[in-house]
Amino acid sequence: MIVTIDGPAGTGKSTVARILASRLGFEFLNTGAMYRAVAFACLQQGIDLNNAQAVGHVPSSLEIVFANNRLILNGHDVTEEIRGQQVTQMASQVAANELVRQRLVELQRAAARGVNLVTEGRDQGTVVFDKAECKFFLTASAEERARRRQRELLEKGEEVSLEELLIQQELRDERDETRACSPLKPAEDAVIIDTTPMSLEDVAAYLENLVRKRID
Ligand code: DC
User: Fold this and answer.
1) Based on the structure, what is the number of domains in the chain?
2) The pLDDT of residue 169
3) Which atom of ligand 1 lies at the shortest distance from residue 172's CA?
4) Which residue of 66, 80, 149, 185 has the fewest CB atoms within a 10 Å radius of its CB?
């Protein structure tokens, strides 16, 4: 069975998907981390993000492996590095590149072969796994999403104002929602959940209930 969880940044997708996968005993795939890994590699290799052809070739030079919720890029654990501010902004630019998307979608489909999977991202229910049995789309208010991001950054020692985070968030949302290939939007058959007033544990429990009903 494939369970997809899509939605904009800060809606708690990754945390909810991880908890849900663990409760169900399913594998978990964080596809945002894959786009972040490509952005990080572009940064390391000094590739100009305006050069679509050069960016498009980056994924084929990379080995991306998930191990115990860590992302290993060409043998190095980059889990923390890819969550920083610069890579975050770059990732939404890289994610608009058609060649990058093609390659990462191949990897995502390969990861789903023969396993039960909870996968999260922007296009998992609409494009990558359009036949998935269970599709969810998480939303939350812009302020709540920015507050969650602020808390995450503070835990890493990065202090950024809410105003600045709201501006960055709006820019990324706009890029993710208006790009030509696989824009962020709910699948027609997705269940939409507003996570603003809920704890992420509660969201995961709610989704688990819906998935189990589908399994029975
Ligand atoms: O979920 P995240 O913030 O880690 O995602 C990083 C970027 O990658 C974000 O700008 C959206 C993009 N992304 C995408 O286009 N498709 C996905 N399946 C996952 C993420």
Assistant:
1) 1
2) 93
3) 10
4) 80
141 alpha carbon to ligand 1 midpoint, in Å?
A: 18
Percent of all residues in the chain with a pLDDT value above 70, rounded to a whole number: 100
Ligand 1 centroid from CA 216, angstroms: 32
- Give the CATH number for residue 25: 3.40.50.300
Question: For residue 3, which of 138, 102, 107, 101 has the smallest C-alpha distance?
Answer: 138
From 28, 103, 122, 153, give the residue whose CB has the most ligand 1 atoms within 8 Å, as the site to mutate. Answer: 122
How many angstroms separate the alpha carbon of residue 23 from the centre of ligand 1?
A: 24
Helix (H), strand (E) at residue 2: strand 2-6
Task: Identify the pLDDT of residue 216.
Answer: 79
What is the SS3 assignment for 99? helix
Pocket of ligand 1 (CB under 6 A): 9, 31-33, 35-36, 91-92, 95, 121-124, 172, 176
| Residue 84: half-sphere exposure toward Cβ, Cα within 13 Å | 11
Q: What is the pTM of this model?
A: 0.94
Label the pairing between strands 117-121 and 27-30: parallel
- Say which residue the tokens 């709201």 belong to: 166
What number does the ligand 1 atom closest to the CA of 14 have?
A: 1
| Model confidence pLDDT, tens digit, residues 134-156 | 999 999 999 999 999 999 889 98
Ligand 1 atom nearest to CA at 13: 1
Range of the domain at 54: 2-215
- pLDDT tens readout for residues 49-84: 999 999 999 999 999 999 888 999 999 999 999 998
